[in-house]
Design a protein that fits this description.
Elements: H1 13-17, H2 32-58, H3 66-93, H4 100-113, H5 117-141, H6 147-150, E1 156-160, E2 163-167, E3 177-180, E4 190-192, E5 196-200, H7 202-205, E6 211-214, E7 218-219, E8 224-225, E9 230-234, H8 242-255, H9 263-284, H10 295-309, H11 312-331, E10 334-336, H12 340-346, E11 348-353, E12 360-371, H13 376-387, H14 393-398, E13 410-416, E14 420-425, E15 428-433, H15 435-440, E16 455-461, E17 464-475, H16 479-488, E18 493-497, H17 502-512, E19 516-518, H18 523-536, E20 540-545, H19 551-556, E21 559-563, H20 569-574, E22 577-579, H21 586-620, H22 626-649
Parallel strand pairs: 11-18, 11-20, 18-19, 20-21, 21-22
Antiparallel strand pairs: 1-2, 1-3, 3-9, 4-7, 4-9, 5-6, 5-8, 10-22, 12-17, 13-14, 14-15, 15-16, 16-17
Helix pairs in contact: 2-3, 2-5, 3-4, 3-5, 4-5, 4-10, 5-11, 9-10, 10-21, 11-21, 11-22, 12-21, 16-21, 21-22
Enzyme class: translocase
Protein name: P-type Zn(2+) transporter
EC number: 7.2.2.12
């Protein structure tokens, strides 16, 4: 199964039709409980029928003879056997003869041919249960990709016939006037007709600071209007808009993903033809070797050999190992969308991460207060009195400051476009804003402020520079520990790519000790950088992000990791691994869990293959019966289960 086919199966119906036969019966439109019942019903039915049949055999029930017994076990076999036989037949039609489906089909039908009906049902039931374990893990970790469509703006208020009417954005033409209310998404790319506007562009650019746009400047589809009703003039059709391009990149990047197959599929392609040809040889070659050759006797022995050779212990031990890994990861707040991604994590040697929302909280906080010739609390009261008049996110961050005593009150507050605020507090003239506001009022600003890369709010009181406040996006509590643990887990290179300003990106990267960083990137730029790394890298490249703008890169990278607590729905749906707690330190834990899982899976493979090899030799020599083979498989499966359960008990630092 391809890496992203699991995630996009509800979008790409053709891919969905080509999935494993055990998925074909799922009705995704049904309630979850009904869907689960339908999934497990065939195995439950076969199990009940098998147990009842064995009980009637044991107690030698009178009517349970001849054709009644055959029909009973055939009915027990079909729910779990028919999908496998069908898949084997479809594989043969496509030219892929030697699959585990073919081996399971020949062996179990062979068991029926020699009268070993319970064994035939039991072996196929074991196989079905193994598949259900795998499918349960995938389906639990996977959710519908419909969120990709939900991010599209679904309406546009267009000015037509002297009134604003709501239409589908795809019907809006270039040059039309569109109205956007507070909190709504910009439906199409365009230019701002209103005097000014404040927009949240984090989903598109990763820029943590809201963007203030003046009249005549560009606005992009997918941005959220934060302040007042605005009007824009469209410059692109919806299909060419920013958000449409991003969604298109997600799907195209997904299509470029290389296929990854689980070990059992690869192993079966070698194991199956060997076993089939050995069984054929076991049937006919003795004719040339032994004197008292009896065809029926050697056919019986070959069929027993085939039943013994069924890889059900192998098949069940592998998904059980991965299932244990998936469960252990889930308990640690990490969600893998399928077993193959546990394997991929073990091969990662380069980690690329976004900044905003990934290693930072994506929330403005006061980083530093510098009061000159004023006590800090009094200085902040002047500033807060002015900022109380503003709804800007930076103002909200400043208002979180706690100062003792009564608050000051501002009056005659006016906004100076693009610069800041001017007003009166306690009879004193106060200016609050950026450096151009200070210099335009002949206020000398300390040179030290030129080196500050974060957002800075400057204050002057009565014509003198009174100080400044640095506002910054705060690092997550475990950001430093995350980088340290990622390196300790064996990652050789850590890179930061961000849509935020390059100066801020470089500062955060330096503070965290990241190897290399680049800021000011659009989604296309991030994609280019990661694809370049993937082409140059012999190992795997993992990308960690949280916004819509990260979705194309999450889809294109070898392993896409999304921050699931505050991350965008699209990023979560597109990623292979989701950090449900939003803690970057979980990334290293995900790598360690992947390595532990792979180690246990290979232990299970070694155990299953070793026991299988011994029993195969005994079967070929006529020393093992059907039930001994089934017992050996059951024993190996139980040991594999116990080994896999160890993952649930393991602790990772």
């Amino acid at each position: 199964m391809s890496k992203k086919k699991q995630n996009l199966r509800d979008i790409n119906t053709e891919e969905h039709k080509g999935e494993h036969a055990h998925d074909d019966g799922h009705n995704h439109s049904d309630p979850e409980s009904v869907g689960k019942f339908k999934t497990y019903l065939p195995a439950i039915f076969s199990f009940v029928m098998l147990i009842i049949g064995i009980a009637m055999d044991y107690f030698d029930v009178a009517f349970f003879k001849d054709w009644v017994r055959i029909v009973w076990y055939v009915i027990a076999y079909l729910p779990v056997g028919f999908p496998v036989i069908k898949e084997g037949w479809n594989s043969i039609i496509k030219g892929d003869f030697f699959t585990e489906f073919l081996l399971m089909s020949i062996a179990t039908i062979g068991a029926f041919a020699i009268g070993e009906y319970p064994e035939g049902v039991a072996v196929m039931l074991f196989y079905a249960v193994g598949e259900l374990f795998q499918n349960a893990a995938v389906n639990r970790a996977k959710s519908n990709i419909k969120a990709l469509l939900d991010v599209r703006p679904n309406e546009a208020l267009v000015y037509r016939n002297n009134d604003y009417i709501s239409v589908n954005p795809e019907t809006v033409e270039i040059g039309e006037k569109v109205q956007v209310r507070v909190g709504e998404k910009i439906p199409l790319d365009g230019i701002l007709l209103s005097d000014k506007g404040s927009f949240n562009t984090a989903a598109l650019t990763g820029e943590s600071k809201p963007d203030t746009i003046a009249k005549g400047e560009k606005v992009f589809a997918g941005s959220i209007n934060l302040d007042g009703v605005i009007e824009i003039e469209t410059t692109k059709e919806f299909k060419d808009s920013s958000i449409a391009r991003i969604l298109d990149m997600v799907q195209n990047a997904t299509a470029r993903k290389s296929k990854t197959e689980l070990f059992i599929r690869k192993f079966a392609r070698i194991y199956t033809p060997i076993v089939v040809f050995l069984a054929i040889g076991l049937t006919f070659l003795p004719y040339f070797i032994v004197d008292d050759y009896v065809f029926s006797e050697w056919l019986y022995r070959a069929l027993i050999f085939l039943v013994i050779s069924c890889p059900c212990a192998l098949v069940i031990s592998i998904p059980l190992g991965y299932f244990g890994g998936l469960g252990a990861a889930s308990k640690n707040g990490i969600l893998f969308k399928g077993a193959s991604f546990l394997d991929e994590m073990t091969k990662v040697n380069t980690v690329v991460m976004d900044k905003t929302g990934t290693v930072t909280k994506g929330v403005f906080k006061i980083k530093e207060i510098k009061a000159i010739d004023w006590k800090e609390p009094e200085f902040m009261k002047y500033l807060m009195a002015m900022e109380e008049q503003s709804t800007h996110p930076i103002a909200k961050a400043i208002m979180e400051y706690k100062a003792d005593g009564e608050d000051f009150q501002a009056s005659e507050v006016s906004e100076i476009a693009g610069k800041g605020l001017k007003g009166t507090v306690n009879g004193k003239t106060v200016l609050v804003g950026n450096k151009p506001l200070m210099t335009s009022n002949n206020i000398e600003v300390p040179s030290e402020t030129d080196k500050i890369v974060e957002s800075i709010v400057m204050v002057s009181i009565e014509g003198r520079f009174a100080g400044y406040v640095i506002i910054a996006d705060e690092l997550k509590d475990d950001a430093h520990e995350a980088i340290k643990q990622i390196r300790e887990s064996g990652i050789s290179k850590i890179i930061m790519l961000s849509g935020d300003k390059d100066s801020i990106t470089q500062q955060v990267a330096k503070e965290l000790g990241v190897d290399w960083a680049k800021g000011g990137l659009l989604p296309e730029d991030k994609l280019i950088e990661v694809e370049k790394l993937m082409s140059e890298n012999e190992g795997r490249v993992a990308f960690i992000g949280d916004g819509i703008n990260d979705a194309p890169v999450l889809a294109a990278s070898d392993v896409g990791i999304a921050m699931g607590g505050l991350g965008s729905d699209v990023a979560i749906e597109t990623a292979d691994v989701i950090i449900q707690t939003d803690q970057p330190s979980k990334i290293a834990k995900a790598i360690k869990i992947g390595k532990s899982t792979r180690r246990i899976v290979w232990q299970n493979i070694g155990l299953a293959f070793g026991v299988k090899a011994v029993v195969l030799v005994l079967g070929a020599g006529g020393l093992a019966t059907m039930w001994e083979a089934v017992f050996a498989d059951v024993g190996v499966a139980l040991l594999a289960i116990l080994n896999a359960v160890r993952l649930q008990k393991m602790k990772w630092k």
